[in-house]
Amino acid sequence: MKRTIAIFTLIFLVAALAGQQQERPANLSGKPQAEIAGIPCQMEELTSPQFAEAVELSGGVCVIPIGIIEKHATHLPLGTDLFEARASVIRAAEKEYAVVFPPYYVGQIFEAMHQPGTIAYSNDLMWQMLEETCRELSRNGLKKIVLFNGHGGSTYFLNYFCQSQLAARKDYIVVLFQGGPDEAMDRQISSLKKSKLDGHAGEEETSMMYLIRPDLVDTEAMGKESGLNQGRLNAMPHAFAGIHWYARYPNHFAGDVLQTNRELGELLITRDAVQLAELIRYLKNNSTIEELHKEFYNRAEYPLKNN
User: Fold this and answer.
1) Is residue 166 domain-resident?
2) Of 7, 10, 45, 195, which is most buried with the most CB atoms under 10 A?
């Protein structure tokens, strides 16, 4: 009898432990959620049955890393922004599972049309492409869409795109990731940097690309053209013009010192990945933004009645 009780007790304990393991959040196990789930986070790598699992595992969250095809000085590849954005997003999705959209490079880049290799799509196509992409993701169950911008020239466009989501009722939400300061990592980053001027294709981007794809960094071509601010519109007061970037950096390079520092690149990629993972986790576990959209849409349909 005692032996029978012991066996049943053992079975009960095993079942209880198995249940605890099933209920435990994947990100507390020490392994990436994607690894535990056994399915990739990159949408283009998923089979159709895996995609259905990915939608459930992600809580309906999809991140679109947005880059561009443009010149990056004389030493970095045209797709630098896309490589960098996807590196941070994939790393974030491995920390907190989300579906990562395939390479997306339709954005605003008219200011680089004078440089070889630039692909500058029309305004109408930029807008329609992103709108229909979001609509299709929603139709497939991904209702929480995060835009991760890897290209500074698309910032105003993407901000306005998010604002325009209020123009008509939708069954999905779109948010634009905006990274903030990280005191510890920012100190490390500052300690590693050598440049005083660092922007497009500068020290940070060079280090990130040297981490991600060192084979695509032409170290012998580094610094062949000037990356200094030429300030040709400095005398024009109180105004912004589309030609401002060209007036400052016609070589499509902004920087004074270049280095290939893997540690710097690692910190830069990680900082965004950690913060993006926090946003993904929030969207998966919180419905406040959806509730606010519904409230807004209802009030906007009958503003006199509801105010």
Assistant:
1) yes
2) 195
Which residues constitute the domain of residue 141?
Answer: 30-186+269-306
Question: Tell me, what CATH number does 169's domain have?
Answer: 3.40.50.10310
**Measured CA distances, 151 to 140, 179, 212 (Å):** 27, 14, 17
* pLDDT, tens digit (0-9, with 9 covering 90-100), for 275-302: 999 999 999 999 999 999 999 999 999 9
Contact by Cβ (8 Å): 205, 232: no
Listed residue (229, 226, 225) closest to 247, CA to CA: 229
- Distance, in Å, from the CA atom of 307 to the CA atom of 302, rounded to the nearest integer, reads 9
Predicted confidence (pLDDT) per residue in 158-194, tens digit: 999 999 999 999 999 999 999 999 999 999 999 999 9
Tell me the three state secondary structure of residue 104.
Answer: strand
Tell me how many helices (H) and strands (E) the chain has. Answer: 12, 4
- As for how many domains the chain has, the answer is 1
Residue 275 covered by a domain: yes
- Residues 206 and 75: their CA atoms lie apart, in Å, by 8
